[in-house]
C-alpha cells in the first residue's frame, strides 16, 4: 500500500529515489552497495583457496563450461531477489539484468534458457523469477529466450535448508531438456573465454548444484557450450556453511 502511495521510494531501503531517476525502483546508494565478484576461478569465478585448485566447481557436471554471477548476495541483493521472487515485483527484473550485464562480460550466446520452476510452484507463484530475469537480459543482449527448452518435472524442496550433498541429490535428474534445434554444435569443453551457445539464467547461485543438473540435462538433449549467469551469488562463508 505504501508503495502505491509512494511510487518513488527505493524498494530496498524505502528512501525516496533521487530526482532525475523518476522510473528508478532502487536508489543509487543501494545500487552502489551491490558488490560485484572480482577475479577468482576461471570456470566459476568463486574466490580460489590459498592453495590448490578451485573446490567450489569441482563436483559440477563437466557439461557446464563456465558460470558467472553479477553481485554477491549481500543485504541489498537479497532484498531485490526477495521482492522479485515473492512479492511480484517483476519490474525489478530489468534493474537486476542491468546490474548483471554490467558485471558479466559474456559473449553473446545463441539463446538464453531460464532455470524452470517445478509446475506446481510455477502455478502458485504465477511466474518464474529466472524467466523474468532472462527476458530482461535477453532484451539487453538481443538474444532470444527459450523458456520451454528445459523442464523441471520433479518438485524439489527448498534448497536453502539442505547441505551440499543433499542439494545435489535434491536436484539430480530433476530436469529434462528438449533436443537442441541445431544439433550439437561442439564437443564438451571447459572454455573459460565466456563464449557459449546457450546461457542458463537464474536469480541466485548457492552451491551450483541446480545449474550443474540443468546443464547436464541440456547436454543429454544435445546442447553444448553451456554457460550460466546468475544475478547474485551466496557469500562464500554462506556456501561453506551449507556444505559443512
Ligand atoms: Zn535504497
Ligand atoms: Zn571453480
Keywords:
single chain; 244 residues; alpha/beta; 4-stranded parallel β-sheet; two-stranded antiparallel sheet; globular; binds zinc ion
| Gap between N and C termini | 41 Å
Biggest sheet, in brief?
A: 4 strands, parallel
Helix content: 25-40%
Instruction: Give start-end ranges of low-pLDDT stretches.
Output: none
Question: Strand-residue fraction?
Answer: 5-15%
* Helix/sheet category: alpha/beta
Q: Tell me the total number of β-strands.
A: 6
Tell me, rounded to a whole number, the average pLDDT. Answer: 85
Tally of individual helices: 9
Write up what this structure looks like.
By secondary structure, the protein is an alpha/beta fold. 34% of the residues lie in helices and 14% in strands. It contains 9 helices and 6 strands; from the N terminus they run ααβααβααβαββαβα. The chain has helices spanning 2-5, 28-33, 75-86, 92-103, 119-125, 129-141, 164-171, 209-220, 236-243, and strands spanning 64-72, 111-114, 150-152, 175-177, 198-205, 226-233. It has a 4-stranded parallel sheet with strand order 1-6-5-2. Helix 4 (92-103) packs across helix 6. The longest helix has 13 residues, at 129-141. The N and C termini lie far apart (41 Å). The structure holds zinc ion (2 copies). Residues 41, 43-44, 46, 54, 56-57 line the site of one zinc ion.
Amino acid at each position: 500500500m505504501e508503495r502505491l502511495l509512494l511510487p518513488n521510494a527505493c524498494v530496498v531501503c524505502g528512501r525516496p529515489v533521487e530526482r532525475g531517476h523518476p522510473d528508478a525502483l532502487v536508489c543509487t546508494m543501494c545500487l552502489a552497495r551491490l558488490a560485484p565478484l572480482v577475479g577468482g576461478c576461471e570456470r566459476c569465478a568463486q574466490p580460489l583457496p590459498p592453495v590448490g585448485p578451485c573446490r567450489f566447481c569441482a563436483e559440477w557436471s563437466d557439461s557446464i563450461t563456465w558460470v558467472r554471477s553479477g553481485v554477491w548476495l549481500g543485504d541489498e541483493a537479497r532484498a531485490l531477489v526477495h521482492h522479485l521472487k515473492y512479492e511480484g515485483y517483476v519490474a525489478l527484473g530489468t534493474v537486476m539484468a542491468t546490474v548483471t550485464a554490467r558485471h558479466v562480460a559474456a559473449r553473446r550466446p545463441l539463446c538464453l534458457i531460464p532455470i524452470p520452476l517445478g509446475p506446481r510452484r510455477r502455478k502458485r507463484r504465477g511466474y518464474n523469477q529466472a524467466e523474468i530475469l532472462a527476458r530482461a537480459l535477453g532484451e539487453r543482449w538481443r538474444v532470444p529466450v527459450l523458456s520451454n527448452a528445459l523442464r523441471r518435472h520433479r518438485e524439489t524442496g527448498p534448497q536453502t535448508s539442505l547441505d551440499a550433498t543433499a542439494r545435489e541429490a535434491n536436484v539430480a535428474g530433476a530436469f529434462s531438456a528438449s533436443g537442441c534445434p541445431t544439433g550439437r554444435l561442439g564437443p564438451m569443453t571447459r572454455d573459460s573465454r565466456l563464449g557459449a551457445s546457450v546461457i542458463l539464467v537464474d536469480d541466485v547461485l548457492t552451491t551450483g548444484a541446480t545449474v550443474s543438473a540443468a546443464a547436464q540435462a541440456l547436454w543429454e538433449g544435445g546442447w553444448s557450450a553451456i554457460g550460466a549467469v546468475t544475478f547474485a551469488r551466496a557469500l562464500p562463508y554462506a556456501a561453506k556453511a551449507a556444505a559443512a
